[in-house]
Amino acid sequence: MLGLLGFYDELDNHPGRPNGSIRDAVQPVGEPDEADLVAYLDAGHVLIDVMEAGHDVITGSAHRHSLGCSSLVTDGTWLWRQDFPHYVETHHVLLPEAFIEHVQGLNYQMPPLITDQFAPRYNETMPLVGWASTVPWRATATVLEPEPRTVTSKAEFDTAMLARERNRPHGNWAKPHKPRRA
Questions:
Q1: Separation of alpha carbons 40 and 49, rounded Å
Q2: What is the separation of C-alpha 120 from the centre of its chain, rounded to a whole number of angstroms?
Q3: What is the model's pLDDT at position 2?
Q4: In 10 A of CB 128, how many CB atoms?
Q5: What is the DSSP string of the chain?
Q6: Separation CA 62–CA 72 (nearest Å)
Q7: pLDDT at position 38, please?
Q8: Cα–chain-centroid distance for residue 12?
């Protein structure tokens, strides 16, 4: 079975998720190597790409992983939602020591996915995260190398959001209403 990261109650509006409440996982400061851990999470293999948008469940604001937030990502040993890196870098959510040691042991480099080792873990884990109807995982290649992905950094996202706010016209842009006839 895959280790699970970031499957919190608030993210799916279903109590009893594998990682409990996100509010219990928030820390005042992150791990000393938090930036490297976030980069590792951002580099994961995308398994299921979900077309949706979501907001930070703690602040209500948009974030760099808002689009496709519940897409599933893995390194072959652990499984997480695509928006999990946001919660690590913004709210310093608690990471399992086993995960930190695993990533440090890989020198923060995303490993290739070995199909015959990964498929049974995937098929066993998916029902636990609410994907019971998912087709069993099969790949045409025996080894899937990590594909480089362009991921917007938190700083780039925040800068773009500030620029967007500054360039937004001010005033009431609501459609005018016609007066009612008496």
A1: 18
A2: 23
A3: 92
A4: 15
A5: --EEES--HHHHT-SS-TT--GGGT--SS--TTHHHHHHHHHTSEEEE----B---TTT----TT-BTTT-EEE-SSEEEETTHHHHHHHH-----HHHHHHHHHTTT-PPPEEHHHHHHHHHHHGGGGT-TTSPPP--SSSEEPPPP-----HHHHHHHHHHHHHHSPPS--SPPPPPPP-
A6: 19
A7: 94
A8: 13
**CA atoms within a 13 Å half-sphere pointing along the CA-CB vector of 103:** 23
Q: Read off the tokens for 115.
A: 């199909």
Contact 118, 137 (CB under 8 A): yes
Tell me the C-alpha distance between 19 and 129, whole Å: 10
Nearest-CA neighbor of 72 among 83, 60, 86?
83
45-48 and 113-114 strand pairing: unpaired
Alpha-carbon gap, residue 48 to 81, rounded angstroms: 10
Spatial strand order in the sheet of 3-5? 3-5, 78-81, 72-74, 45-48
**CA 147/CA 45 separation, integer angstroms:** 7
pLDDT digits (tens, 9 = 90+) for 139-156: 666 766 777 666 666 666
The structure tokens listed for 97 are: 């020591």
d(CA 131, CA 149): 24
The pLDDT tens digits of the residues spanning 101-127 come to 999 999 999 999 888 888 888 888 887
